Amino acid sequence: MKPPSEDHDLIRWLDGEMNDTELAAFEARLKDDPVLAKEADDLRALSAGIRDHLPAEMKVPHADFFNSQIQVRIAQMDLDEIRQKQTGATSLADSFLAWMRKPWFATAGAVALAVLGLVWMRPHTQDTAHSLILSSYTPGLGVEASTYHDNEADATVLMLDGLEEVPADRKISGISVHRSETEPEIAATTLFDAAGSPLLVISRDAVGHPLFLTNTPRG
Amino acid sequence: MKALLPTLLLLIAGTNLFAQEKAAPQPLPAVKPATEGKVWGALIFATNDASQLLGSQEKAPAHLGPLNDRLAKVFAFKHFEILGQHQQDIFREYESWVVPSRDLFLKIDSNGPADNGGVKLHLQVWRDQQVLVKSDAVLRPGSPLFIGGPKWKDGRLIFVLLLERK
Amino acid sequence: MPSSASTDPGEVSDIDLVKRSQAGDTRAFDTLVTKYRGRIYAMTYHLIQNETEAWDLAQEAFIKAWRALPNFKQDAAFYTWLYRIAHNVTYDWLRKKKVQGDGEFDDERTEHRVAAGAEATPKGDATPDTAMRNAELGQRIQEAIARLSPEHRQVIILREVEGLAYEEIAALVPCSLGTVMSRLFYARKKLQEQLKDVYETTL
Predict the structure, then answer these.
(1) Which residue of C29, C59, C192 is in closest CB contact with A66?
(2) What distance in Å separates the CA atoms of residue A8 and residue A16, rounded to the nearest whole number?
(3) Which of C30, B99, B17 is nearest to A211 (CA)?
(4) Closest to B103 (Cβ–Cβ): which among A72, A172, A176?
């Protein structure tokens, strides 16, 4: 093994970390020392090979899911934060009640509790009891999804804009499904009506698209 | 060939089921897959022109309250008609389909329970063979999700999804 | 330091996306995730050599970045800042593995496996024979890097893949410049030993 200074010279040359003077001196040495020159060539080839075969960017497996999971976790963190704040408020109340049990603090405590009560009665600005859309992806060109919670309707809205219209002459028909049975082995679900008769079997084809089998002609 | 196998299996399953269509209702399977709860899904047609309504007699579950009034707060239409509806288990391990219509339907995958009795879901809204939107959502019981879908005639198709209380 | 990816003229700049993310716009942050997930995943994958763990760690890096965003001062490029977070997340994970004593830091152990499905961004067309030889060579290089100790693997990735200067590597690891040079030298010697049939010429 070479002395450390020489090791460093070789890799500093390889990595372009030498100044002009050092570079000139080292290249002169390379000319005079075939063993060093061979080692330098081998290391340079190795570096090039690594750079060629270790991409700086890779395709992320299940990339959509990667992103959506991040959004889910961010939303979860927000909810946890809100919950912690609520728990914090409760702990504060508990200790406050403990202070109130002290006779000398009764009057002041009662006043303060009334004030605290007023604070508590203010509606929460962020209600987490309703449904949430955490993230959306619209594969169609020009299609956009937006979401909000409509307080008047007390509903969460996912609005899809830019969708292609359904032709007016196309008959859209509904069905009424009362129960279903799933068969995991063949990834098929059978849907039944109120009378227990099968309406549809739904599964997926090789590319994951839904596949229907029905005993009634399509409307 | 890959595409052929599920098609064949589906045909076999379908043939057996539809052959018994006129017979007694199918018994429930002996072992029911684990579920996270139930959802109710409906396809709604919203329009201002009453003559365009199809005359469907479908009714929303009573516990949802006046659904049409709630829809009218979000969508600027006078008439709302339930074209189809579907009550569906949310399977813990398997995908679940909510198909109130073959024209517009949902695929749901559970991502586990959420607070306040909710369920985390991955939703896909499908129109025929095309996925319109993929969403990650938290559904909470009693809090419906209104999905504003494509325009049809002079109105709009709307999907309503509701997590039922346990 | 790695800087941000080249941007299309119509593309929203990182600065705008960061500002919107700092204001709580998760969709803006989602755009940043999409933009940089491939580079962050490549870094975690090269260091960990396990597809599942690398995927989780890349995600962890983005979550940490989201949490730390309020403190991001825009005095550095967003990617440089994100890269530092991802590197620290990954290296902390490797340290924990070391503490758990599963031999991750033992150079002599050779049972690291490279995920067979690890997919590199395609670089271009090649004839089937060349492509196969290339794939085999790539596999061997990845296996050789997997056998390095995490310290050696780290400096090789930072230098060869990310193209960091010695000072930048020293700041990121952190360690002295001399340590960077020593580690790079010994890492290369070990790789050379393993790949001598490919990268060693005769005099």
Answers:
(1) C59
(2) 12
(3) B99
(4) A172
In a domain, A146, yes or no: yes
Query: Looking at residue C68, which CATH number applies to its domain?
Result: 1.10.1740.10
Instruction: Place C127 in a pLDDT band, splitting at 50, 70 and 90.
Output: low
With cut-offs at 50, 70 and 90, classify the pLDDT of residue C101: low
Interface probe, candidates B9, B53, B77, B97, chain A, greatest A C-beta count within 10 A:
B97
Whether B21 and chain A come into contact, CB under 8 Å, resolves to yes
Average pLDDT estimate for C147-156: 90
Which domain range does residue C141 map to? 109-203
Asked if the structure places residue C74 within a domain, the reply is yes
- pLDDT computed for residue A211 by the predictor: 83
A120 Cα to chain B: minimum distance (Å): 20
E-assigned strand segments in A77-219: 132-137, 144-150, 155-161, 176-177, 179-183, 188-192, 198-204, 210-214
Interface predicted TM-score of the whole assembly (ipTM), two decimals: 0.84
Domain hosting A11: range is 4-53
Q: What is the pLDDT of residues C53-76, one digit of tens each?
A: 899 999 999 999 999 999 888 777
**Interface residue A162 vs chain B (CB under 8 A):** no
